[in-house]
From TrEMBL:
<protein>
    <recommendedName>
        <fullName>Radical SAM core domain-containing protein</fullName>
    </recommendedName>
</protein>
<dbReference type="InterPro" id="IPR058240">
    <property type="entry name" value="rSAM_sf"/>
</dbReference>
C-alpha cells in the first residue's frame, strides 16, 4: 500500500516501476490500474540488499498452514544447491529439507561460528539428529514456534531435544502466533507456557493475507475479544515488560 501511495503521491507515472515481494504475490491485481507498474520476479541478491548477513538455502514450505501465505508466495518447496554462505538463515522451513541438505547447511554454519535461524525451525519436523547438528554450531540463535495449543506436545518435545543436545535455553526463543482464531486469554496463556519453560516468548500478531494496513484489528478478531489496547498490552509485556500481566493468566 505504501509503495502505491508513493508512486501516486510523487506523480511518478512517467517512470516505469517493477514491484515484487510477498504482498505483491498475494495480491498481484493491486497494481493492475497502474500502466507503468510491472510485477517482477525475484532479483538475485535482493535479500542481501536488505540484510547483508542474510541468506536462504530453501524456498517454500510444505505445511500449508491456514494462517500463512508462504505456499502462495514461494510456490513448491525446493532446496537450493547454490546460495550465499551467510549466517542469518531466512528459510521458511529449513527443517523440512532432506537431512543431506540440512547437514550441508550446518557444516557451512559451523565454519562461520554462529547463526540465526531467523524464520524459526518447525517443531513438527524436529528430530534428535537435527538438534545434535545444530548443537555443533558454536553460537546458534534458535527460534521455534508455538502457533496453537494443539502444538504444545510437539513444541515441548522439540525443546527437550534441543536442550538434551546441549543447547542453552538463552539461545532459544519462541514465536507465539496471537490473534488467529484465539481469544486474548488463550494467547496470554500460550505465551506463559513458553516463558514457564525458561524460553523467551515472542508474540506475533496475525495479519489476514489480504491486509492493507499494519496491526489492524479485524472484525473477526473483535468478535474474539481483541481490541487495540489488548493487542498492545500483550506485545508490550513480552517485548518490553511494559504494563502488568493480567491476573487471569495461570501457569500451565
Amino acid at each position: 500500500m505504501s509503495v502505491r501511495r508513493h508512486i501516486v503521491a510523487q506523480n511518478l507515472f512517467s517512470k516505469q516501476w517493477i514491484v515484487g515481494g510477498g504482498a505483491v504475490r498475494l495480491m498481484p491485481e493491486y497494481f493492475n490500474d497502474l500502466s507503468n507498474v510491472t510485477v517482477g520476479e525475484d532479483i538475485k541478491g535482493v535479500l542481501q540488499i536488505f540484510n547483508p548477513m542474510a541468506t536462504r538455502t530453501t524456498i517454500g514450505c510444505p505445511q500449508n498452514c491456514e494462517f500463512c501465505g508462504v505456499d502462495k508466495i514461494e510456490g513448491e518447496y525446493r532446496e537450493l544447491r547454490d546460495y550465499p554462505n551467510l549466517p542469518i538463515i531466512c528459510d521458511s522451513n529449513l527443517t523440512a529439507s532432506s537431512m543431506e541438505h540440512f547437514e550441508r547447511v550446518i557444516v557451512r554454519l559451523i565454519s562461520i561460528g554462529w547463526c540465526d535461524f531467523n524464520q524459526g525451525l518447525d517443531v513438527r519436523l524436529m528430530t534428535q539428529d537435527h538438534a545434535k547438528l545444530i548443537a555443533m554450531i558454536k553460537n546458534p540463535i534458535i527460534r521455534i514456534a508455538l502457533d496453537s495449543d494443539k502444538l504444545k506436545d510437539k513444541w515441548t518435545e522439540a525443546l527437550e531435544m534441543l536442550l538434551s543436545a546441549g543447547i542453552a535455553k538463552y539461545k532459544i526463543g519462541s514465536y507465539v502466533l496471537i490473534g488467529f482464531n484465539s481469544q486474548p486469554i488463550d494467547d496470554w496463556r500460550r505465551c506463559e507456557y513458553v516463558e514457564n519453560k525458561g524460553i523467551k516468548a515472542l508474540p506475533m500478531w496475525f495479519h489476514s493475507l489480504d491486509a492493507m494496513e499494519h496491526n489492524v484489528i479485524t472484525e473477526h478478531q473483535k468478535e474474539l475479544g481483541w481490541t487495540e489496547r489488548k493487542r498492545k498490552h500483550i506485545m508490550g509485556w513480552y517485548y518490553k515488560h511494559r504494563g502488568e500481566k493480567p491476573i487471569f493468566v495461570t501457569n500451565d
